[in-house]
Amino acid sequence: MDALTTNSAETDPNRGWFTPPERETDSHQRTADGGESEIPSRSPAAIRPVGRAAARKQRAQQQADQQEQEQAQERAQEQADHRADQPPDRQTPPPAAAPISAPEPAPARIADPAPAAAPSRSTFEAAPASAASPDALLIRRTMAEIGPVADRTTGYFYALLFIRHPELRELFPAAMDAQRDRILKALLTAAEHIDNTETLVEYLTNLGRGHRKYGTQPEHYPAVGEALIGALSRYAAAVWDPLTEAAWVRAYTVISQVMIDAAAADERHAPPWWQAEIVSHEPRTQDIAVVTVRPDQPYPFLAGQYTSLETPWWPRVWRHYSFASAPRSDGLLSFHVKAVPAGWVSNALVHRARPGDVIRLGPPAGSMVVDHTTDSGLLCVGGGTGIAPIKALVEDVVEHGRKRSVEVFYGARHDHDLYDLDTMLRMQEEHSWLSVRPVVADTPSSSLSGPLPDIVRQYGPWEAYDAYLSGPPGMIRSSMDALVGGGMPSHRIRHDALEELVAAGD
């Protein structure tokens, strides 16, 4: 597919900022393998949307302003009504059978950025200011400016997108609120780290692959780019100038080009999604079930990775779940799912799904995989259903046949929440190199008691181990801090991207 460039709109009055051109020569391509691009520089005048009538732009902005104000009032009223109707400690998920209508334009995203590569916090960091490029400095200045008004920026972004391009509405789920800021957050994250080429390309490559399941095409990227620039220019007006605008145009061109190239490459050997029949549904607790599915065609993945799932009851709503086993000879895939309050997908999978139902799978993603070229020990920390990928990693070590020390800390709030402890203890009995320690946070029990990160730190030091962290984002952050504080190098700590995990539990 054609790669996006910054060819000047002045040469064609029908083109906008990011209109895909005809195929350019290789000197103007950004390749998915991280090769240097030669994106032509542009003057401030050239990045103005001269292909759009001024009147249309003004009407769109006025409509977006009005929509944003109306939606803010509606959301505030809905939240107040909801709080009045619900107990203070629990929310009720929306009824699974009834379609949900949303005001137009609703806060949403063109496509879920998941599944994305899972760069850990230690590897996905911006370059220090002294080493940052001029574009990166301008982008970070913009990010700092919109930080206090992030919600308003998000709402305005989607208002512009749907007013100017109403045909894109069909790419979104009926109710947008559950996914309101994912694409914008992903774009802003990528732009902020524009100097971190290697990790950024990996991240964007997986974003581009993941977008295929939504039917996203190259021609959709210009619309998103124009809405992005429109929202940023409005809410970062105090620091916005032609140089800043040009920096964002260049950054978005690179971002979209990598994603488009990655999607085109993936299209040659993989489908946009897999159909998968549920063959087993095993309740473990009142709100946790182990769901096993059979894909309609081979599904390649690595132990420790995750995918996104879509149920037939909530079309176009995707949620991330880790594989609960290493690749199996029978091709079956298992997932540990916990139903959470107001969780559409999780409640459907736990309480409604049955054998014979068909769900859809996105492509696999994630870099929390075992390095089998070393003999380093593995420190595996799993909280709640985060034990699922930990179990897969242990199975992966077993299958490779190399004995190496594996220390597993399995944490939960209460004893009864250790739903897969028997499985882990059986594996411990079968393999002398494996140690499993259950940890309960709140109540005294036969297990270790206390905060999981503190218990892990007490059993250190862990400098000679590679750490694998899986569970709620807060647990991962605190475990990361505890391990680094205890002397473990941060580059030896692996976990899925925290921004992806925030949306993984519903």
Defining traits:
disordered C terminus; six-stranded antiparallel beta sheet; six-stranded parallel beta sheet; 506 residues; alpha/beta; disordered N terminus; globular
Could you outline the blueprint of secondary structure elements for this entry?
Elements: H1 54-85, H2 134-146, H3 150-164, H4 182-192, H5 197-211, H6 221-235, H7 242-267, E1 274-283, E2 288-295, E3 306-310, E4 318-322, E5 333-338, H8 344-352, E6 358-361, E7 377-383, H9 387-400, E8 406-412, H10 421-430, E9 434-440, E10 448-449, H11 452-458, E11 465-470, H12 473-485, E12 493-495, H13 498-501
Parallel strand pairs: 7-8, 7-11, 8-9, 9-10, 11-12
Antiparallel strand pairs: 1-2, 1-6, 2-5, 3-4, 3-6
Helix pairs in contact: 1-3, 2-7, 3-6, 5-7, 6-7, 11-12
Radius of gyration: 24 Å
Name the shape in a single word: globular
Residue fraction in strands: 5-15%
Side by side, the strands of the main sheet go 4-3-6-1-2-5
| Number of distinct helices | 13
Helix content estimate: 25-40%
The separation of the N and C termini measures 34 Å
Tell me the number of strands: 12
Low-confidence stretches: 1-55, 76-126, 498-506
Order of SSEs, N→C?
A: HHHHHHHEEEEEHEEHEHEEHEHEH
SS-derived structural category: alpha/beta
Mean model confidence by pLDDT: 76
- Major sheet size, sense and barrel closure: 6 strands, antiparallel
